[in-house]
Amino acid sequence: MSAWTRTVVVDGPEQTQALAERLGAQLRAGDLVVLTGELGAGKTTFTQGLGRGLGVREGIISPTFVLVRRHPSAPDGPRPGGPDLVHVDAYRLSSPAEVDDIDLEDTVDTAVTVVEWGTGLVEHLSDSRLEVSLERAVGADPLDLGDLTGPAEESEEEGEEADDAEPRRITLTGVGPRWAGGPPRL
């Protein structure tokens, strides 16, 4: 059912945000983005970049302590009047029925909805979705990048902590009619 899959490698959080910002500039109301990845892989960092690209108000944080947080379009941002960003943490939800209880269907058509940990829970909200999987090396286990190449450049910042400078593999998969035309330009 997927239309396409694209994988890119970035060097760390800044490039993760920059990639997501370019993607966010192309998203529109009704888009559903499902983020997966281990703790610390960069899901919230990615969402912060999406928010910048969408031009929503600052302040995107991990939604760990709230299930849903709405970030309105900023009137002085790059897309005034653009869609809001609805950021969801589905980590504590165990079924699509629990997703229905938080009323996402009320905003999914008018906002860009980003759901962390949403695989298997939110697919019923839309016939199209963008699945984004983030992978990051953990501890002594390096990230096997294989032959992947992407837009990543060497970091120029000195003094970055090793954890922050670790590469991330970001795999985007378009599912459904919205993404049938191919991947967005990144």
Give structural notes.
With 186 residues, the chain is of the alpha/beta class. The chain has one domain (11-138, 163-175): P-loop containing nucleotide triphosphate hydrolases (Rossmann fold, 3-Layer(aba) Sandwich). Helix content is 18%, strand content 25%. It is built from 4 helices and 7 strands. It has helices at residues 13-24, 43-54, 96-101, 162-165, and strands at residues 2-10, 32-36, 68-71, 84-89, 111-116, 129-136, 168-175. Strands 1-7-6-2-5-4-3 form a 7-stranded mixed β-sheet. Helix 1 crosses helix 2. The protein is globular. Mean pLDDT is 86; it is low at 147-163.
* Gross geometry: globular
| CATH architecture group name | 3-Layer(aba) Sandwich
Q: What is the CATH third-level topology name? A: Rossmann fold
Largest sheet, strands/sense/barrel: 7 strands, mixed
Count the DSSP helices. 4
Structural class: alpha/beta
CATH class, named Alpha Beta
Helix content percent band: 10-25%
Total domains? 1
Largest sheet: spatial strand order: 1-7-6-2-5-4-3
Which percent range describes the beta-strand content? 15-25%
Low-confidence stretches: 147-163
Mean pLDDT: 86
Helix and strand sequence = EHEHEEHEEHE
CATH homologous superfamily descriptor: P-loop containing nucleotide triphosphate hydrolases
Number of strands: 7
The termini sit apart by 22 Å
Query: What is the CA-atom radius of gyration, in angstroms?
Result: 16 Å
Keywords: ATP-binding, Cytoplasm, Magnesium, Metal-binding, Nucleotide-binding, tRNA processing
Protein name: tRNA threonylcarbamoyladenosine biosynthesis protein TsaE
GO molecular function: ATP binding; metal ion binding
GO biological process, one term: tRNA threonylcarbamoyladenosine modification
